[in-house]
Design brief:
Organism: Saxibacter everestensis
CATH class: Alpha Beta
GO molecular function: ATP binding
Number of domains: 1
CATH topology: Rossmann fold
Strand content: 15-25%
Strand order of the largest sheet: 6-7-8-3-9-10
Structural class: alpha/beta
Bound molecules: adenosine-5'-triphosphate, magnesium ion
Protein name: ABC transporter ATP-binding protein
Radius of gyration: 19 Å
Keywords: ATP-binding, Nucleotide-binding, Transport
Shape: globular
Distance between the termini: 43 Å
């Protein structure tokens, strides 16, 4: 529900996140920096290049969506940034740190495509799980209380329930809440709402937007939905396939804070036309 994900931390406006970065060199490295990422799977005849020369800089506190045809390497790109798979070339830094050290320090929160909750654990235990599994990562970190996070995500009543007792949308919110236990500076989300029906999806989207507007994180968000990408993002990265590469980056200059009214504006419709025609060009190119 819109508003359900609102966190009770102090609001961070426009450049509040930026203010935390004081040293000019830190500022230059802040956010996610992706340089010349190149990734292939297989060897010999079966070798295929999945990502070719991906360059992208995501500013601290910026919300960037990635959209593109199935198989163009969106999930692979997220996995490279999360340190779940190694690239064959290029490099990624997270607030100036290598992926390895950022992952070790739990600076990255990953929300996978399906909620991946353990059915035999309660909601609270599912959210506590990363703390138990990564005991050593807790040292010196400003951990958030799982109970507080769940309350902020509107799941206070669900704390002692099991995943099967929740709706799909609530399960998704538990998965998003779980990514916040370590208060990561970067959030990677791989089509988190894809399994939901349109109404539920819109509610979750507005909830995420509301949350992000009051608690800015650097976000890289994969989606297949054009309105979703526009509603949430500062910029939309359109990828092409075979090999996966960035075809275009579209700025979304809609004023913030945004709410559902924005869908009906001319600016929104113009952007929708622009993103859709870019995607069409990418798809046509693929079939030449
Ligand atoms: N572990 C793997 N081994 C071999 N090939 C893989 C592996 N993971 C992904 N691929 C291939 O890499 C390409 C990109 O996959 P990826 O999952 O990144 O695409 P995607 O853009 O996320 O697609 P979708 O929109 O369908 O989720 C695909 O052709 C896929 O078959
Ligand atoms: Mg994918």
């Amino acid at each position: 529900m819109a508003g359900q994900m609102k966190m009770d931390t102090q609001p961070a406006h426009g450049d509040a996140a930026e203010e935390q970065v004081t040293h000019p060199e830190d500022r230059a490295n802040a956010g996610v920096r992706i340089h010349g990422i190149w990734k292939s799977y297989g060897t010999g005849d079966t070798r295929s290049v999945v990502l070719e020369g991906i360059d992208l800089a995501i500013q601290r506190g910026e919300f960037v969506s990635v959209i593109g045809p199935s198989g163009c390497g969106k999930s692979t790109l997220l996995k490279v940034i999360a340190g779940l798979t190694d690239a064959n070339g290029g490099d990624v830094t997270i607030d100036g740190s290598s992926v390895r050290s950022a992952a070790k320090n739990k600076m990255i929160g990953l929300v996978p495509q399906s909620p991946a909750l353990l059915p035999w654990r309660t909601v609270l235990d599912n959210v506590r799980l990363p703390m138990k599994v990564n005991r050593r990562a807790n040292g010196g970190r400003n951990l958030r209380s799982p109970e507080d996070i769940l309350h902020s995500f509107g799941l206070g009543q669900a704390i002692d329930k099991y995943p099967a007792q929740l709706s799909g949308g609530m399960q998704q919110r538990v998965a998003i809440a779980r990514a916040f236990v370590f208060d990561p500076s970067v959030l990677l989300m791989d089509e988190p709402f894809s399994a939901l029906d349109e109404m539920n999806r819109d509610q979750q989207r507005l909830g995420l937007l509301d949350f992000w507007q009051s608690n800015r994180k650097t976000v890289l968000f994969v989606t297949h939905s054009v309105p979703e990408a526009i509603m949430l993002s500062d910029r939309i990265v359109v990828m092409a396939a075979h090999p996966g590469r960035i075809a275009s980056i579209i700025d979304v200059n809609l004023p913030r804070p945004r709410d559902a009214d924005v869908y009906a504006t001319d600016e929104f419709r113009d952007l929708e036309g622009e993103v859709r025609s870019t995607l069409r060009a990418v798809m046509e190119d693929q079939h030449v």
